[in-house]
Amino acid sequence: QVQLVESGGGLVQAGDSLRLTCAASGRTASLYHMAWFRAAPGKERKFVARIEWDSGSTYAADSAKGRFTISGGNGKNTVYLQMNNLKPEDTAVYYCAASRAIFTTGREIEFDYWGPGTQVTVSS
């Protein structure tokens, strides 16, 4: 089993930056990918960005490209989401997810473990 806990969310103004952190514990050696998803108020959860541990390759949704950066540290135990130039439409609960699959395309079903989420609110 793997446990994930997000931190770093909060209330910020448009144009500000935030860095979210996801701390993983347990059998992290079994993980091939970690990712961030988000769920805006009243909307379904959507993919934001993911990182492949073996290669270090990263992938981001179009909405995140150029403003959000996913990175990893501390082996497979920590993943970050640096968010710059935040906009009100970035307001959402942000979830960390981890996958044991060797190959993923960013779909929720491909991820085995989820954190409880952290709220990010961007005011205009």
Average pLDDT works out at 95
What is the chain-wise order of helices and strands? EEEEEEEEEEE
Straight-line N-to-C gap: 40 Å
The level of helicity is under 10%
Q: List segments where confidence is low: pLDDT < 50 over at least 5 consecutive residues.
A: none
Radius of gyration: 13 Å
SS field, number of helical segments: 0
Largest sheet: 7 strands, mixed
Question: What's the gist of this structure?
Answer:
The chain is an all-beta fold. Helix content is 0%, strand content 52%.
Structure notes:
This protein has 124 residues and is mainly beta. The chain contains no helices and 11 strands. The protein has strands at residues 2-7, 10-13, 18-26, 33-39, 45-52, 58-60, 68-73, 78-83, 92-99, 113-114, 118-123. The strands form 2 sheets. Strands 2, 4, 5, 6, 9, 10 and 11 form a 7-stranded mixed beta sheet that branches. Strands 1-3-8-7 form a 4-stranded antiparallel beta sheet, with no helix packed on it. A hairpin with a 5-residue loop joins strand 4 and strand 5. The model has no long low-confidence stretch (mean pLDDT 95).
